[in-house]
Specification:
The chain has 354 residues and is an alpha+beta fold. Among the domains are: 161 residues, NADH Oxidase (3-Layer(aba) Sandwich); 76 residues, no CATH class. The strands form four sheets. Strands 1-2-7-4 form a four-stranded antiparallel beta sheet, with helices on both faces. Strand 8 and strand 9 form a beta hairpin. Helix 1 runs antiparallel to helix 6 and helix 13 runs parallel beside helix 15. The longest helix has 20 residues. The mean pLDDT is 96.
Length: 354
């Protein structure tokens, strides 16, 4: 390929068409300059809002410097894939029933890392068929990549006050993936923000984790507490978690832009094993083997059985004082894990004091 004569504008158009054919709902292209975001990110780290996510601080500003992460990178191709599953129990209905377990809608199906990585690789293979060998690296929430900033700059959407990406025609129920490449593709124009004076997500956060517009204290975020946090969940936050045992969607559920969200057509993102409305006691009864079997190929597998029980114990402690709930907790009172024991003990004390 002779770069001085190759039509990169046509290639960019082709990449978007190929991406749509592979199941992506939007493709955008941007350069690598994210310097405007560096002061905000540095301040976020300095305030300790990343909690135990040490990798955030360890990689530092490399997250906002794609050409340092992958030398030779000239452009970033961002891809969006909708994930909202069809035919699932409504989130509101589940969260209003204290006997059920709420699992973030993105985690009900197959692990998105595997799905997006495979499709992005297929897109790279298609590009190579056209241009020959080229430099690239694929990412799907798998390295220090500022995916929301890159997606915003590539014109796919804007960064909402909850720090998730928002799209006027798709809301926020989607995954993002990136291709860092050395191809000098024409960049798309960045989009503008359309949050206006709305503060619905800030108000809706159960634990007050959105401490200011565009600023999240991860240490209070239920997604962080149920997924990223390795140890004990702070006691003062446990009652605020309700029945959310893996992730939290409250800031998305209240967002006005999500009335435009599209249901996913991807079979891999549809709910498995009835996890969209399962009972807490049913899930708490899973032993290690059952957990591994029922979460095979799922993002949920990453937290392991111990933290799975920890999370459900908290939810049971927030449930009704029913003999069945107390019996379920008592069945785990002597669990080998001190972490599980602690949360079970707290839940039992909470139920018995109601």
């Amino acid at each position: 390929m002779q770069s001085d004569s190759f039509d990169f504008s046509q290639l960019a158009s082709d990449i978007k068409a190929w991406g749509h054919a592979l199941g992506f709902q939007a493709i955008g292209i941007c350069d690598t300059d994210l310097s405007q975001a560096e002061p905000e990110f540095t301040a976020w780290l300095e305030q300790g809002f990343h909690g135990e996510m040490d990798y955030m601080a360890r990689h530092g500003l490399k997250r906002l410097r794609p050409a340092e992460l992958v030398p030779g990178t000239r452009r970033v191709i961002t891809a969006r894939m909708d994930y909202l599953p069809e035919q699932v129990e409504s989130s509101e209905t589940v969260m209003q029933d204290a006997s059920r377990a709420f699992i973030s809608r993105y985690a009900l199906g197959r692990d998105y890392h595997k799905v997006l990585r495979s499709r992005l690789q297929q897109l790279c293979d298609r590009i190579a068929e056209c241009v020959g060998e080229f430099g690239y690296r694929v990412f799907t929430d798998s390295a220090p990549v500022a995916e929301v900033h890159l997606a915003e700059k590539s014109g796919i959407g804007w960064r909402g006050k909850h720090t998730l990406l928002l799209s006027r025609d798709a809301g926020s129920w989607f995954f993002l993936g990136e291709i860092f490449t050395d191809l000098p593709l024409p960049a798309d124009e960045a989009t503008t923000s359309h949050c206006g004076s709305c503060s619905a997500c800030i108000t809706a956060c159960p634990t007050g984790a959105i401490v200011a517009p565009y600023q999240v204290d991860a240490r209070r975020c239920i997604s962080y507490l149920t997924i990223e946090l390795q140890g004990s969940i702070p006691e003062q936050l446990r009652p605020l978690m309700g029945n959310r045992i893996y992730g939290c969607d409250d800031c998305q559920l209240c967002c006005p832009w999500n009335k435009f969200a599209q249901l996913s057509v991807e079979p891999d993102f549809q709910a498995r094993h009835g996890l969209d409305a399962a009972s807490l006691r049913e899930l708490f009864a899973w032993d290690q083997s059952a957990f591994e079997t029922m979460t095979a190929g799922s993002a949920i597998r990453r937290i392991g059985h111990e933290r799975w029980l920890r999370n459900i114990a908290v939810a049971l402690g927030n449930a009704e004082t029913a003999p069945e709930n107390i019996a379920a907790l008592e069945s785990r009172a002597d669990h080998p894990s001190p972490l599980v024991q602690e949360h079970v003990s707290w839940a039992l004390a909470r139920l018995r004091s109601k």
